[in-house]
Amino acid sequence: MRRAVLTAASTCSLVVLLLALKPHHTAATSAPGGGTPPAGTAPSPTRSAPQTSGAHPVSGTYTGDPVDTQYGTVRVAATVQGGRLTAVKVLQVPSGSGRDQQITAYAVPRLTQEALTAHSAHIDAVSGASYTSQGYIRSLQSALDKAGV
Questions:
Q1: Interatomic CA distance for residues 63 and 79, integer angstroms
Q2: Among 134, 137, 140, residue whose Cα is nearest residue 71
Q3: Whole-angstrom Cα distance, residue 108 to residue 142?
Q4: What Rg do the C-alpha atoms of the chain give, in angstroms?
Q5: Helix spans in 74-129 (H)
Q6: 3-state SS assignment for residue 115
């Protein structure tokens, strides 16, 4: 009887641990037209060749494409100087409910700080804000693509 209880308890614990595991996906999937990628996939930012005149990259502020997520639209603008990302301004984020606002308030500053540190859109998503993170990253990458960075 003890063995049965121990076996059941350890099996349940193992199942709970396996379900709690959230692997980091690097698979490249991008829905055409700015839609959301399938659940469980990470956005795959792409880079285009720099659009420069002469040897100096173009500087300025570029608005990213709006990205529709399950909870609302995300859109950012990127400021580029000397071919490097220097600022990110959030233009639109999900804010339909109090929970959306709470997640946005938590995730957006972290995403912005990480993007500015990396000087790119190659950043990790914020745990608990997967959809907002994916939208942010994809919109930022589209702005950087427009800048030719």
A1: 9
A2: 134
A3: 17
A4: 19
A5: 98-118
A6: helix
Q: Which residues contact 48 (CB under 8 A, 6 or more apart)?
A: 145, 148
C-alpha–C-alpha distance, residues 15 and 4, integer Å: 16
Q: How far is CA 128 from CA 47, 92, 102, 134, in A?
A: 27, 19, 11, 12
pLDDT in tens, 78-122: 999 988 999 999 999 988 888 989 999 999 999 999 999 999 999
pTM for the model:
0.62
d(CA 79, CA 144): 9
Rounded mean pLDDT of the chain?
78
User: Do 84 and 63 contact (CB within 8 A), yes or no?
Assistant: no
Q: How many CB atoms lie within 10 A of CB 116?
A: 16
What residues contact 133, with CB distance under 8 A and at least 6 apart?
107, 111, 124, 125, 126
Contact (Cβ atoms closer than 8 angstroms) between residue 78 and residue 88: yes
Expressed in angstroms, the distance from the first to the final Cα of the chain is 65
Residue found by looking up tokens 């990628």 in the block: 37
Residue pLDDT, tens place only, 41-61: 333 333 333 444 444 567 899
